[in-house]
Structures are given as structure tokens and as C-alpha cells.
Amino acid sequence: MKGAVAGGCHGALDKMYETLELLQRRHNVRPDLLLCCGDFQAVRNEADLRCMAVPAKYRHMQTFYRYYSGEKKAPVLTVFIGGNHEASNHLQELPYGGWVAPNIYYLGYAGVVRFRGVRIGGISGIFKSHDYRKGHFECPPYNQQTIRSAYHVRNIEVFKLKQLKRPIDIFMSHDWPRSIYHYGNKKQLLKMKSFFRQEVESNTLGSPAASELLQHLKPTYWFSAHLHVKFAAFMQHEANSKEELPKATKFLALDKCLPHRDFLQIIDVEHDPNAGDSLEYDAEWIAVLKATNSLVNVTQSTWNMPEKNGLHAKWDYSVTEEAIKEVLEELNHDLKIPCNFTLTAACYDPSKPQKNMEPVHTINPQTTEFCAQFGLTDINDRIQQAKEEGSGRGECEEEEEEEMDSTGSAEEPSEYNTDNSGLSSFNPDEIMLDEEGGDEDLSTCSVDPSPDHPPEFSTSFSDIRIMPDSMAVSSDDAMDSNNEELEKSGGSKQVEEKSSTERSLKRISGDENVNSGVKKIKRRNQAIYAAEDEDK
């Protein structure tokens, strides 16, 4: 089975799908599945723009709304996780996953599904230690704190994933697992991104929670994005017992979806030829959700997950084969995920912009149906109840100044001693925003849809690379070899270019002039959100 993997697409769905179409037309390569590693930006309308953690001047509608409305349909099954630049109110409707548009599926806060027998898992958001042990308490309308904390990874999602015992084929996270850079060409990485050096040398770059999952799940493939650089690594895992066969993970981080960037990768994945073409539930994951349902927390209170330390009567929530069998019987052995996408918000209309549209807290029928089917807690319904009962005072409204500052310094120590999931050094690819939110106005948005006529890609095909049967990362790379072409380590033979129309399969693109004439600003993803201003 051929799969395509994309870094953060930042709402540029048209470009992503046009890239795949061009790939098929020119090279007869047609992926069966598209995976996206966060920053998907499923923005339906102006209210969704307000719920995206970027400065107001960089909130642009892009093209997702056309797929949400039904004007367009994704030409390939697309599965994605959330990042740190999302319409959080939209994704929050689907905490256990669901369809955000026909043929486009969100994995939820954490999730595992199957496609053609391939087991695909993922965790949304980025790691921040000061929110890690809280519940999912946020709901729209967000304030300056909750618009960010809404996409921070929580310990309960990591705990659920750590209950899995069966092998995972593909796993996605937005931020990198901490320490993964030690298993690839670190020298080349630091040559491309010298400002990573301090974090790499202190081993604080990336997510410790994702690293924990990597060591536990040991998937065949792990894909990430977030740091805006392409990087490959190969991690050989130690066996937990003499009976366990050695496992290894092929890691690949992808760049953002911009011209002249390696944002898309093609891989070949072993699959079950007898499996159907539908996206399916994973029976073990459903059983884990049922087993851990009592742990759901929708408050800001911090707490640790059960562990074997004498303080908890139960700490092992992994499931038995009998529990998995019960799930199969509940579903009559039909694991197909129903195509029950439902519109839950008005869709953006370019002819009738509504710049004052306010976000509301919505309970999605997909989540209601899923929870009813498997006896799970509807997190959003629980938040609504807490709000009505007064126990959730301030959680969904403008909150009073809390004792916790932006670094969580007044909070109990986390089980992790740092909270950098990304960058503490200056990154020219990032837009930095004061944590106080001084230059971010949640009450306004800039509605600037992408052009109806996308750029012509036929003369600038340079954004895709095909990966062979395995992501070849040599042992020399893992030892900081002098290979100057890590970006070309996917195994594709590079063909010398004679003209822009004779380029080999690498990336797709148009013109890019990201750094020229850009006013120094604050917040992540500078190159992404500055690009449109520069085009004007």
C-alpha cells in the first residue's frame, strides 16, 4: 500500500491534493492514504479563525471550508492529528476522533484506527509541562490562556496509549519525541538549524511524553512535524524480554507546506490484501477507552495517572483478549467507521463575510453517537454539565488572573522537569508571541481567503519525494556522518536539474520569498503566516 505523509499543511488543502494529483499524472503514483502530522487548520468560518492561536493578522481562511461545505471532496482518504495552530473549537467537538469533512478524519486527542490492516495511531497537540497533568477543561469562547492550553497534550492521553500491547505500524505526533535527534544525522540537522544546538546538547528539544510513547509503542514508522525541517532517524529498540523480537522505528520529520519545502513523503507500507478499503475502528483501542473511562477529568486540577507506587488500587489498564473480543461482538465484527459526518457550524461564504461571528461550545453528534455506542463519557457534555452546575466556574469564560504564570511556575512540579516541546532558542522560521498575548486580539480576525485560482504547479514541481520500501537511514547518519544530504536520505536518486521543468521527484512548489521585507514579529510559524503578506 502506498501512503503519503505531509507535515503541517496549515489549511492549504488545495495545494496538498493538487500535489498528489500531479504526482499521479507525472509519475503514475497514486497514494491510497494521506496522513497529516498536525497544524491541519480545519477552519470552517470566521469564528473558527478566532480559536486559532496565531496573531489576528495571520488568521486567513485558506481552503478547508470548501471541503467542509461539500463544494470539494478530498480525493484520497486523509487522516490527521492536531498541532498547535488549529481551530481548536472545531477539533474539540471530536475528542475521540471523527470526520471533519467527507473523507477527512481527525484522530482526536489520541487515537488508533486501521486501514487495510495497517494500524495507525497518533496524539494531537504539543507538550507543555504546566498543563500536562490537567484535564481537558477548556471550551470556547477561549481566553488568552485557554486558546493555547487547549492544544497541550495531557497525561491521560499518553496513559491510554501506553496500555496498548499490540504492534503499531504507523504513529504520528506533532512535536518530535525528545532525543530522537541522537539517532539521525545530528551534525547535518544542526547545520540546517543551528539554533537547535542548545536544546540538542542539553537534550531538551522535543516532547518527553512523545519519547515515552516511542519507547513503549515501538512503531514501525513515526512521523512528526512542528520544527519546520526535514529529518530522518533510525532507532533500534531494546527487547523487553528474551521472547520479544528486536524492533526498530523509522522516524521522519517533515517540513511545513510551503513552496520549495519537503512537506510530502511517499512510503510503501505492508498491508493486508484481504482487508477492505474503509477506515476501521481498532478493537484494542476501543477496549482501552472503555477501561480508562473512569479516569476522564474535565477540571483544571492537576493529577497523576495511576502507577504502581502503593497509592493506587489499580494501575494497569491494559485490556485482555476477552475485552477485545467483547468489543468485536458489540460491533458484530464490523469495525467500519460510519460515514456520519455532520455540519455543526455555518460554513464561510466569501460573498457574505461575518467578521463578528462568535465561537460557541458545540456537542458534535458524531461524538454523542460514539460515546453512546461504547458507553464512554462525552467530554464536552461533561464540561457543559460542570458549567451549568457551577463547578466549572471560569473554565469557559474570561478567567480571573490565576496564580500560574505562562511557564506554570506556581504549579506543582510535573513529572517532567522541562516543558520545551519545541524551541526556546530564537528560530527564524517561527513567529514568537508574548505569552501575555499583547499582540493577539481574540475578538478580531482577518478573513483573507486564498485565491480561487491556485498557482500553476506544472512548471515548478519540486515538493514531493518518493520513499522506497524502507526509510533508509544509514548507520553512518546515526553517528553524525559527513553526509551533507540528509534531506535526500529517503533513498531517491537525485537527478541533476537542467531546467525547472526537468526536476526529479523531490518537492512541489511556487515562488517563495519568506524572509525579505518581513517585519520582526512574535509567534510561531513566521514563514507560514508572513508568506501571504509578502505576496501583496
Number of DSSP helices? 16
Rg = 22 Å
Query: How helix-rich are the residues, as a percent range?
Result: 10-25%
Tally of distinct domains? 1
Number of strands: 14
**Which topology does CATH recognise?**
Purple Acid Phosphatase, chain A, domain 2
- Structural class designation: alpha/beta
CATH architectural grouping: 4-Layer Sandwich
Regarding quaternary structure, how should these chains be classified? single chain
Can you list the strand order of the major beta sheet?
A: 4-5-3-2-1-12-14
- The unreliable regions are 392-415, 417-426, 431-440, 448-536
Q: Strand count, sense and closure of the main sheet?
A: 7 strands, mixed
Instruction: Give the overall form.
Output: globular
What sequence of helices (H) and strands (E) makes up the elements?
Answer: EHEHHEHEEEEHHHEHHHEEEEEHHHHEHH
Task: Report the average pLDDT across residues.
Answer: 80
Any idea of the CATH class? Alpha Beta
**Going by CATH, what is the homologous superfamily?**
Metallo-dependent phosphatases
Q: Roughly what fraction of the amino acids lie in strands?
A: 5-15%
Distance between the termini: 42 Å
Provide an overview of this structure:
The protein has a single domain (2-390), classed as Metallo-dependent phosphatases (Purple Acid Phosphatase, chain A, domain 2). It is 23% helix and 12% strand. The chain has helices at 13-27, 46-50, 64-69, 88-92, 129-132, 146-149, 155-161, 186-192, 197-202, 208-217, 283-291, 321-330, 365-374, 379-389, 475-478, 526-535, and strands spanning 2-6, 33-36, 78-80, 98-101, 104-106, 110-115, 118-123, 170-173, 221-224, 231-237, 247-253, 264-268, 279-281, 464-466. Strands 4-5-3-2-1-12-14 form a seven-stranded mixed sheet. A seven-stranded mixed sheet has the order 10-11-9-8-7-6-13. A hairpin with a 2-residue loop joins strand 6 and strand 7. The longest helix has 15 residues, at 13-27. It is globular and about 65 Å long. It starts with a strand and ends with a helix.
